[in-house]
Design brief:
Order of helices and strands: HEEHHHHHEHHH
Oligomer: single chain
Number of strands: 3
Largest sheet: 3 strands, mixed
Radius of gyration: 16 Å
Structural class: mainly alpha
Distance between the termini: 34 Å
Shape: globular
Length: about 150
């Protein structure tokens, strides 16, 4: 059985450990904080799914094919999803300052879909990632004081 909360936590742990910042206009945020935005999360998940070849599997959801898009996405283990999101963060287009640009990311995903076809992602997973990304995390001082 699929556990969206666990999958979202894996993705958010990867984003939290990412040293890159994501910029839109004059605002640059750490990757985890930027994943509160649906656009950023959706684009990174689409790049992640593309890196796994999921868009091809989703298109085979016809009689005799690999299954429906949702079944194909559910077949991805959380660990592999985490690795693919790590790849997406590494491969995301950057500006001259080395920052991931939101609009560059959108353009890159649009080009992938134009070239290779629609990349299906699970909107429930996107929402769960956004929820987990927005959940406050304890600071080191609080965690150390609790021990």
């Amino acid at each position: 059985m699929r556990n969206l909360d666990f999958e979202a936590r894996v993705v958010c742990a990867i984003a939290e450990s990412c040293p890159d910042r994501i910029v839109k206009g004059s605002t640059a945020l750490p990757a985890l904080e930027a994943m509160r935005a649906e656009l950023v999360t959706s684009c990174l998940l689409k790049m992640a799914m593309f890196s796994l070849g999921i868009q091809s599997m989703a298109e085979m959801g016809q009689p005799g094919g690999a299954g429906t898009p949702l079944q194909s996405l559910e077949a991805v283990p959380a660990s592999l999803l985490g690795l693919s999101v790590s790849y997406a963060l590494d491969a995301a287009p950057r500006n001259g300052e080395g920052l991931i640009e939101v609009f560059g990311l959108v353009d890159h995903v649009d080009e992938l879909e134009l070239t290779f076809g629609r990349i299906v992602i699970d909107s429930a997973l996107v929402e769960e990632i956004r929820r987990v990304a927005a959940t406050p995390r304890p600071t080191a001082g609080i965690a150390e004081g609790a021990q």
